[in-house]
Write a structure and sequence with these properties.
mainly alpha
């Protein structure tokens, strides 16, 4: 029976992997043909990021509905998160359009500040809040993993490299790492939704992969972009990463995605501690 179940999970995982691969290939081709495509005046890739945030807020609402919080508390929590996301996106968008991220604070480039400052503050709060823990206990663990299928959008870095606007020292590891993380997000989510111990381990390993991808990308970004840490790509510096709309990736998408990884790891750890990993959970499609 277990072999049949594992075989079924493998079929679903492979099917979702193929689906994500098709989407990644379509996105790659679209960027090759029209890298500056907009919907109205909004760059398409930013519109897709906003859509992903909308899905995340919907998932948060569904998760809060499962908690023992009073209705007023649930509404206040959801509105608070929505406001923080809105202000964060608006600030990054405005500063990016004004070219602030192409400048430095003293000798320190502003892009690393935009990454590390939110991460330091946010991770401290997210890993210590009891309310966040209760919300995670009530939320299917597959959600926080599957939503990061949007990481396939990182294939745009490979397009920038092909078009000669980004050095390969940054674009190749960042683009390949992002696409790999995105391709594996839905298969990992399916296994985590099974509630099996191996599913939990797969979820942890997927999160570690995603965090390693960011560690490599951030490091190579600092080593290739103009600044005191630039040791590589001196003849072809990574200027594109600080230009709008590309800068929205390090200024918002990267730190926000790190938060999702941290929350997912905390959730999987709590699952083991309270023993909820013994049974299956709602999947992304059925929850």
């Amino acid at each position: 029976m277990k072999e049949f179940t594992d075989a079924g999970l493998n079929r679903k995982a492979w099917g979702l992997f193929v689906l994500a691969a098709v989407l990644a290939a379509a996105w790659f081709g679209l960027n090759l043909l029209a890298p500056d495509m907009t919907v109205g005046r909004i760059p398409l890739r930013l519109l897709l990021v906003l859509a992903a945030d909308g899905v995340i807020l919907y998932g948060l609402w569904r998760g809060l509905a499962r908690t023992p919080f009073a209705p007023a508390t649930r509404i206040a929590a959801w509105v608070g998160v929505a406001l923080v996301l809105t202000i964060w996106i608006a600030a990054a968008w405005t500063l990016g359009e004004k070219g602030v991220f192409q400048q430095s604070v003293g000798k320190i480039p502003t892009v690393p500040i935009a990454i590390f400052l939110p991460v330091l503050v946010g991770v401290f709060v997210l890993t210590r809040s009891d309310a966040v823990g209760l919300a995670l206990d009530a939320t299917p663990a597959s959600w926080l993993i599957g939503i990061q299928v949007y990481r396939i959008l990182g294939g745009m870095f490979l397009v920038y490299w092909i078009r000669g606007t980004m050095p390969g020292a940054f674009a190749l590891p960042a683009g390949i790492g992002d696409v790999a993380t995105g391709l594996l997000a839905l298969p990992a989510a399916i296994w985590v939704a099974s509630g099996s111990p191996i599913g939990r381990r797969i979820g942890i390993r997927w999160n570690v992969l995603g965090l390693i991808d960011f560690a490599v990308a951030i490091t190579m970004g600092m080593l290739t972009a103009p600044g005191p840490a630039q040791l590589l790509a001196r003849e072809h510096p990574n200027i594109q990463i600080a230009m709008f709309p590309t800068v929205m990736t390090p200024a918002f998408v990267v730190p926000f995605s790190i938060f999702l990884h941290v929350l997912s790891l905390r959730q999987l750890k709590r699952m083991q501690a309270i023993g909820t990993s013994a049974g299956p959970q709602p999947s992304l499609a059925t929850a």
